[in-house]
Amino acid sequence: MAGIADGRLTDGRGRDRMIHYAIEKQGGEIWLRQKKYEPRFALKTESVFAQCNGYMGVRASLGLPSLDGKKGMFIAGLYNRAYEEEVTELVNCPDVTGYELVLDGVPVLPDSRCLTEFERKFNIHTGELVITSTYELESGASFCLTDRRFASMENEHLFVQSIGITMQKGCIKHGGICTGIDGQQTNSGVSHFKKVNCRVYDRKYLHVEGYLEEDTLSILEGVSYTGEEEEAVFTLKRRGITGRYFFSIPDGGTWEFTKYVYIQNEKDSLGLDRQKKLLEKCSEAGYADVFLKHKKIMQDIWRQARIEIDGASPEEEAAVSFAQYHLLGMMPWHSTDCSIAAKGLTGEGYKGHVFWDAEIFILPFFQYVFPQAARNLLEFRYKGLDGAREKAEAYGYKGAMYPWEAAVTGREETPLYAALNIHTGKANKVWSGIKEHHVTADIAYAVWQYYSVTGDRAFMERFGYEIIFETASFWVSRGQWDEKRQAYVICDIIGPDEYTEHVDNDAYTNYMARYCCRLASVLAEKLCAESPDLYRELDRRLGMDRNRKSWEEFADRLYVPVPNEELVIPQDDTFLSKKRIPDIEKYKKSQIKQAVLLDYSRDEVVDMQVLKQADVVMLLNLFPYMFSKEVVKKNVLFYEERTIHDSSLSYCAHAQACAAIGETELSWEFFKKCMVIDLDDNPNDTTDGIHAASLGGIWSCVIFGFAGISFSDGRLNVSPRLPKHWKEMRFSVKVYGHEIDVKINRREVLLESREKFVQPLSVLVNDEIYTLTDTLSVKCKDKEEDICA
Amino acid sequence: MAGIADGRLTDGRGRDRMIHYAIEKQGGEIWLRQKKYEPRFALKTESVFAQCNGYMGVRASLGLPSLDGKKGMFIAGLYNRAYEEEVTELVNCPDVTGYELVLDGVPVLPDSRCLTEFERKFNIHTGELVITSTYELESGASFCLTDRRFASMENEHLFVQSIGITMQKGCIKHGGICTGIDGQQTNSGVSHFKKVNCRVYDRKYLHVEGYLEEDTLSILEGVSYTGEEEEAVFTLKRRGITGRYFFSIPDGGTWEFTKYVYIQNEKDSLGLDRQKKLLEKCSEAGYADVFLKHKKIMQDIWRQARIEIDGASPEEEAAVSFAQYHLLGMMPWHSTDCSIAAKGLTGEGYKGHVFWDAEIFILPFFQYVFPQAARNLLEFRYKGLDGAREKAEAYGYKGAMYPWEAAVTGREETPLYAALNIHTGKANKVWSGIKEHHVTADIAYAVWQYYSVTGDRAFMERFGYEIIFETASFWVSRGQWDEKRQAYVICDIIGPDEYTEHVDNDAYTNYMARYCCRLASVLAEKLCAESPDLYRELDRRLGMDRNRKSWEEFADRLYVPVPNEELVIPQDDTFLSKKRIPDIEKYKKSQIKQAVLLDYSRDEVVDMQVLKQADVVMLLNLFPYMFSKEVVKKNVLFYEERTIHDSSLSYCAHAQACAAIGETELSWEFFKKCMVIDLDDNPNDTTDGIHAASLGGIWSCVIFGFAGISFSDGRLNVSPRLPKHWKEMRFSVKVYGHEIDVKINRREVLLESREKFVQPLSVLVNDEIYTLTDTLSVKCKDKEEDICA
């Protein structure tokens, strides 16, 4: 029903956006609560409350039949292309959460008069979903129905759902629940499984195997329930199987039914017998026990990931933890065969494709907190090198040109054409797959960032160098010589701001390309001198000798836009000469994304000073020391006036940039908006999945922006600029494999390494150099002055 | 929700089944009415009330979002095979009936507290569906919502839906309706369109094109509504397009919105411009006018098809008319490229495949009432000859072996294996496609029946002879010589009764095979003598000289089971030696179809005297003069005791057989059950479509059985045996292209031909011979005696 509400039912335009969910703290854990039955918020809440463990993501849909939601289960790396004319997409897998309930002849439905109370809540720290509803039947009987679920972090293949019915009044004589595995799910009407096999083993385990072009998904389900009074009845459906289980509940009694589901892509195959045994063990242990094991792992994870902020409001605390929950949940912990999709594992949005979001917005969190996971993400890109080489060659370039949208291979997955314009019938070419090239520098940048912070030489030698060298070769071939400028230029390109297509010398792109080539050139020289064997091996394959000079020369002579007299860095060659859009506030306030395209054609938008999202501002974030504070501030303000923030990647970039120069109040304004991108009271957003990059952006803004953490040239930099009302921040970061607990308040910066540094770590706190062996405390020198700038 | 109700919620087992719907007569038209909102009956009612015009069938789903129904639109002949492992099936096409309604911010939903009254009714004579519901909003406003639809008989491509809102209290300030073409429909989770293109023309017409492997479906939709206050907004969805239209309604006012939809398989392509013009004209004329044109055609059709029965109860009248409505609605009037599916165009059941139902159960109605349509159905089989020849060859036989299940070609569409047994994992072989051969004789039988009644020589010369000769050749090759019997036998076969597999000399099959070969032999001789050119042409292609002797010999020497000492015709060689099933009453009374297979394995069932459906009894119907009344009665009673009637084809066969021998009371018992197969109060039946063959059986039973009409050897036979309470029947049949009005009551049989017979027609009334030129009245000789035996 969300569709019809667009812009008509909502009255929230322009209001300061709020977190839609109530926040409840319980023993250090935070719950988000939806306190009433809200069909309009069904799709959004399903994404926000999704159970994700990095292997699977299960939307937090109601189990009972309902009109308003959209069930979804997504498995990391499980992509398929249904038809030649469709793109490869993350498959919406068979549903395991749905059930029908008939009590004494009455079907129990949330959209009925019988529903008297409803609550859906979600524990950000454990990932547990609890849906509680109370029904009063016409017979006078009333009961409370509880549906609890989690995706296990102890065994990533395990999903558990427990359904409980507690009688508040009266009893149930004939109860029946019908549930199983439903393979009739589609990606919005497109089916993916070319064959679905269904089995029941031992009159107990339901098994569904779905065959895709390249993969086979296997789902095994075991159940346990109180008092097995009557034998279950299993029924084969098209593409699925259901079990019907029967029960009765005395007055005041409770009936419990638990599903243990083992889900795997057959590639990571554990035999059925072992799966059955595992489910058997779960069933013997029970929901609480299995959950406890999961929770312990989660606690360990949170010990590493936690960010404690004294003074932060519950909303702020919730938003930051929420971001981290989903970051943890979207990470394919045990695989290097896939990466992180734009919507994580929570919805069909962006077809589950992987963008630059993964390296630039999401990777930093993992790099500083779970470096092994960060390494996995980059190894995935290494595996994609051949595809990237093919793409470069296809476009007449050298080296490796990464796809704008990736799935499981390095192949470009961006469709060449978007759907036809419904009015003109013309196909809109999707230029981003053809012209948005910065991702190829972004990946090289991420590789070096990862190495800088982790010191993971083995990674560099096996994977990292090759990525950097091959992307540098691409950039050299991508440039062209400009006689007038006597410099290399990069023409006809799209930068991060996708409202400006086909421009020359996009600032972000050119700086990143220069960085990439400079890095390659310096590393090549170093390797040649220090690791001649590796160098020779790389030379044989990549032509190091032949190429390194060109990297150097390109880096030296590539034109990059510099701040003009007003200190503005031109976004590209023509941006500053375009006219401004007259009514930008209208679009900034609109709850409808890209509303500007309803009033202006794409060509008109391209010809105006109007940005979808941060572009130059992103550049400022990635190179925090390159420009003066004055230049940074000028550019943030200049571009913000021209930015609609139609991309969820935008607010966090602005917030971080402002924080980095100590413009904490301005930063806070952006941060407030960024925090609620998924949580606000706009029911039309986040419906097809959470915004993965923005969640990464929240973490970056807090750690890089407010805590002022950065790392370069082997030195940890801490330049805190806490928001006014934040009194203290405590968190940990990993540097060179050492976990450092950081405490920042207005009087002190305290760093404690859990292991001693053998070679003391150089640390810069507020521009003064220190060293860290195990503990470093830097006190505020002048008591009148904040340590946080 | 129907699934969970199976056998648990229903209390109707064993009760005499009733028509679930209220019956209302209005000016000679009959309405079926569902008087309240009944989610459990949603699926069934959607099938029963479907709008069908032979080209399209649209399930009578609620337009507003609802959990319980299953939308469906099926186009005659539009089949597709989605995956190699799936079978070809009738495609569930994009939906055009759904809409969302938001009134002053409140979504209108039938499953809500706001619904105060509900009625869904369906006019059997015009095919119009009217869904009326009353809502009372929380604001206090109340209104009546009406949704009327029909599939036009004037233009088979046209579907019209009109939605009206009449305020009963208060007004609507901001109303919005969101509706369009939704291509996210699947056949139970399987998508068929490999590409879907969407357009809006002239900011007015919505157009969706869906591409299948072989066909392209085009749907063009125009709308008109009262007061176009605000411009419509069109939105592209995945696989569809929606328009949002805005309105307000004053107190006491009415708002009307009408959709005119032009649907075509591009094969029968009318250009878009002409389609638009047609829709424009409709829009100018308005629903009432367009409906009137449709209604006039329907009235013409009913003038030919009507069966008036004085003394029949409203239920009986409704059931007979209902059968005829759906027979008319499933007939592809203008095509010879497809035939009639087991569920007509009302659901996904049996994948939309064509069985012997079409020729043996459905064709008779058309043959006597709309002979051109009957000819179309048979021409479809002629087009399938090549496929049938290929099937014969593949199995090592000669001639043409028709597929047990057909779609658009003559190819066999029966899957080789049914779904895996969920408990054993073994695939059940589907033997009917391999061993159920009688369809190949059924088609030859139908061809000759058609010719006998119509005298359509042109048809025989172009199509009919070839079918008969080729099927005869198949039968000869299918038989084998039995030394002991000194006769040909047909071994390892399945007759109509599918609970008895792999038997030898199935009575039905052997008699039909003999008939087919005898017919071929006689016709060959006649052709050779009377039409030597045609004979030579056929000889060249079919080897007439070579084959005709073998047809004759096979017919002469084929063993057929004859009545034994107890007058029982053995169903096959071993049937009478099998033991009876002990508890057949249990399964006869079960609301669950094929419940016997839950208690016994297929092999056990095969080894018992238990029938799914009429087998020998069918034989008695097809050859009404072959056996004495005594033999017929004996066999009907003998086999009925052993028949569960798990097939909907069974009751009508028994009813007709009993009527034919004057066992009217016994016949009536079967007929009562047959009448309500689709209409009864079992919500779990008819959910995936009406039972086409059974509806044909109702007509046959009334006309062949009760009115005692038959035609053979150029003579019309009328031997009425009206049920006690039927006082008079009036109907028409076409013989040799002459429409004969028949009136039968207890005193008189009156035949009036609308055109004079140049050569008077021989007529047998109650075993006495008369002739008909224009009028024939046969009075009851003895006033004490009924003319109806």
Shape descriptor of chain A: globular
Largest interface summary: A-B, 56 and 56 residues
State the strand order across the main sheet of chain A.
1-2-10-11-12-13-20-17-16-15
Strand content of chain A: 15-25%
Could you give a short account of the major beta sheet of chain A?
A: 10 strands, antiparallel
The count of strands of chain A amounts to: 35
How many helices of chain A does DSSP assign?
A: 22
Please compute the radius of gyration of chain A using only Cα atoms: 27 Å
* Low-pLDDT residue intervals, each spanning 5 or more residues of chain A: 1-15
Distance between the termini of chain A: 48 Å
- Looking at how many chains there are and whether they match, the oligomeric state comes to homodimer
Helix content of chain A: 25-40%
Tell me, rounded to a whole number, the average pLDDT of chain A: 94
SSE class of chain A: alpha+beta
